[in-house]
């Protein structure tokens, strides 16, 4: 079992008190000497069942009997309207464990071959692609450590046999037989019928999940290679012209990988089709926007941009102390670095009222070194700043006078020269 555990400083079994996790813990305890790592158990009480406190104490007693450390966490896992209770409990549990797990420690769960088969069927019924059909990986990054599933090659029958051979005691959660939950319906009503017709079907489904994991890995490798060829003019952008050289399936694969790499939610097939038609297929002078929960894609000229949904920047001016700060809801950070011979001239700002604001329209300035007035709109167009970004770049005012556009232009007469102390401004989106 040790080969399933990444190099870690300690391992913790996610102990529910049920058959699977009790067997995993017991098996690891019997191999403690060869494991070569500190071993403990952690239990999450969802407080959804009247007997949940008793289950927690049974877990604590088992760990005391096995002489291993025990950690208990209590969470509120009540679901919102329209949300699956099972999903809400799972998310609350994993979030608590993710926040708690120490750096370089490994959390071990008791997911087994039957769970993998059920997961593949659920994902298949949802119309998932190879990544979803790959099921649960044996090892993955989790919080500041890892998540390991050392029992994916072991069946539920084998776990039950181990428990009986060693006279183990475990908790029976009545929720595990509630057919209202999709997984329970598959487990108790569908898979037994499949097994009766095709013996070994669970093992075959788990093997199919491994094949899908291989396919998903190859898709990612292709996307990484493609991504190197289609970069746009700036970060988090792709060239529309380059994208259109790929076939639609290859383009969809690249877009999924790109969006996931940016930490954005994966779009559905319908959204990907909309990106293909409304954004990539738009006229060069159009500025289409495609959005889905938690993300949006926009096009400007030949570049495709991806981002979290944009919020409207605040109106009016706010006082500023001249230091670095985050600006909400403009979703960015203004970095201020003391320097000399560049940036805003500090002597000119001393003792005067400094304020930050955002573009409202009609602003003009004389950029340092240009010699005559330009509209801010014209300057943004020349620089190729996308329209939605133009209203989110901070403007710096001194006693009500515009003196800088953060990270882009200083107004003539306000720049530091020679050895004069200055303030260099840098604006970046969070």
TrEMBL record:
Enzyme superclass (EC): ligase
Record-annotated membrane-spanning stretches: none
Subcellular localization, as worded in the UniProt entry: Cytoplasm
Molecular function as annotated in GO: ATP binding; tRNA(Ile)-lysidine synthase activity
Domain Lysidine-tRNA(Ile) synthetase C-terminal positions: 354-427
Record carries keyword Isomerase: no
GO cellular component, one term: cytoplasm
Catalytic function, reaction form: cytidine(34) in tRNA(Ile2) + L-lysine + ATP = lysidine(34) in tRNA(Ile2) + AMP + diphosphate + H(+)
Residues that coordinate or bind ATP: 16-21
BP GO terms, sorted: tRNA modification
UniProt-listed Enzyme Commission number(s): 6.3.4.19
A matching Pfam family: ATP_bind_3
Keywords, in A-Z order: ATP-binding, Cytoplasm, Ligase, Nucleotide-binding, tRNA processing
Primary site of residence: cytoplasm
Domain-related comment: The N-terminal region contains the highly conserved SGGXDS motif, predicted to be a P-loop motif involved in ATP binding.
Function: Ligates lysine onto the cytidine present at position 34 of the AUA codon-specific tRNA(Ile) that contains the anticodon CAU, in an ATP-dependent manner. Cytidine is converted to lysidine, thus changing the amino acid specificity of the tRNA from methionine to isoleucine.
Family, per entry: Belongs to the tRNA(Ile)-lysidine synthase family.
Name of the protein: tRNA(Ile)-lysidine synthase
Organism: Thiohalobacter thiocyanaticus
Gene: tilS
